[in-house]
Amino acid sequence: MATTEINPTPNPAPEPAATAAEAAAKTKGHRFGGLHKIRAQIRETEGVAKYMLWTGLVLSGIFVIAAVFAPWIAPYDFDTYKSGSGERFPKQGAPSGTNWFGTTVQSLDVLSRVVWGARTALEVILLSVVFSLIVGVLLGLVSGFVGGWLDRVLVLIMDTLFAFPYLLLAIVAAFMFQGLPGGGVLTTALAITVVYIPQYFRVVRASTLSAREAVYVEAARAMGAKPTTIMRRYVFSNVVQSVPVITTVNAADALGTLAGLGFLGFGIQPTEAAEWGYDVSRSLDDINAGMWWTATFPCVAIVLAILGFTLLGEGLNEALNPSMRRRKIAKAVIPPITNPRKTVTLTATATGTATTAGAATKATVPAQADPPPAETASGDTASETAAPDTTAPDTTPTEPQEEGK
Asked: What keywords were assigned to this record (predicted)?
């Protein structure tokens, strides 16, 4: 009885395990993959959106730097009316070497008020945007995912708030939040928060309504995931993609609302912090008297800050929105032909067959296989040379043909 010897294939050697550094690098890349994707999309932006984005980024960066480093940039404190030697600043003094932007009616340095006003504006913007972002996104996510009577009640409340003029709503909210601990900065930030909660709510709710019917959400439900887990792990990351754009636009609106509240006298008190809207309101009489510097510099600061955040938001919208963004188009480069097509020289012989020759008429023929023989009407195939007659065989020798040429 014959036996068959089987040589088993040796098992492949196991791959070495990834080192701790490689594993950490992969984890870090997975964790910050969204940021890398956003940065790649911004770098690929072209056209007007690119200039809008970078212009807004520069203006916003100047505003943030002035706010953060205000104690080192401003020559004096926001409520200082005397120089280091104890000499009082001139009242409504024109710009000079001591006071670059002039002084106000209270003998305050305008440059210091402008720089410290940037710090106040940044504090109010950060607080109002963070509060409205947390409340609006959370309510919109729950309302869109749960639905039912809770959704109807929240939509009714948000539509009611959205129907009010934003400045009037901020004034009413400022009256409601007066007396809270934290001073005028916190009160103003909460008043502005009420204005922008409906915007985040409506955007997130609309995205949640479409995302909760997606296939991956249905799969999570089939696997037994809890509603809170589905909202946190599967829905949240897909409905907040447009929130950064809204945040930058709302930052510009919040700055304008803050200036309006300060101009009307419902904002931050002048003894607590410097505020651009209040300075503009106090300088109206100075403009009629020809003293332009007390109102010009705060107004320019307001315009540039709002312009910076607006351009940044519009640039981000066009860079991250797939329906609006424009990308670089790589120029197609066709490589040169390094291997030209082979040419075959044909010459006609006396017997009518084609053979190669060196000095005959040239024709470019691509190298390919012989074409299939043509079919006759009776279904038989016809060869290139006629079949010999069986009654009278031809004894004339024929020259062999070169196949494939």
From this structure: Cell membrane, Membrane, Transmembrane, Transmembrane helix, Transport
Residue with tokens 């934003």: 166
* 3-class secondary-structure state, position 232: helix
Q: What is the DSSP string of 190-255?
A: HHHHHHHHHHHHHHHHHHHHHHTTSHHHHHHHHTT--HHHHIIIIIHHHH-TTHHHHHHHHHHHHH
Among 63, 68, 80, 94, CA closest to 300: 63
Which residue stretches of 32-147 are H helix? 33-43, 48-68, 70-73, 110-146
Answer whether residue 26 shows pLDDT above 60: no
**271 to 77, 122, 184: CA distances (angstroms):** 12, 18, 10
- Residue 193 above 60 pLDDT? yes
Q: How far apart are the first and last CA of the chain?
A: 57
277: closest CA among 192, 217, 364, 379? Answer: 192
Nearest in space to 107 (alpha carbons), one of 86, 96, 91: 91
Fold exhibited by the domain 39-81+100-320 = MetI-like fold (1.10.3720)
- How many CB atoms within 10 Å of residue 237? 11
Q: What is the mean pLDDT of residues 135-142?
A: 90
Interval 344-349 mean pLDDT: 61
Q: How is residue 194 written in tokens?
A: 């009420």
Q: Are 275 and 183 spatial neighbours (Cβ–Cβ below 8 Å)?
A: no
Residue of 306, 304, 264 whose CA lies nearest to 284:
264
Query: Measured between alpha carbons, how far is residue 209 from residues 96, 145, 226, 332 in Å?
Result: 60, 7, 18, 43
pLDDT tens sequence across 277-311:
888 888 888 887 778 888 889 999 999 999 999 88
Read off the pTM.
Answer: 0.67
3 state DSSP class of 45: strand
pLDDT of residue 356: 47
Instruction: Name the DSSP letter for residue 233.
Output: I
CA distances from 268 to 33, 127, 300, 366 (A): 41, 14, 20, 86
CA dihedral (92, 98, 101, 107) positive or negative: negative
Task: For residue 396, give the 3-state DSSP assignment.
Answer: coil
- Predicted pLDDT of residue 345: 64
Output the pLDDT for position 4. Answer: 45
Amino acid code (one letter) for 371: P
Within 8 A by CB and 6+ apart from 332, the residues are none
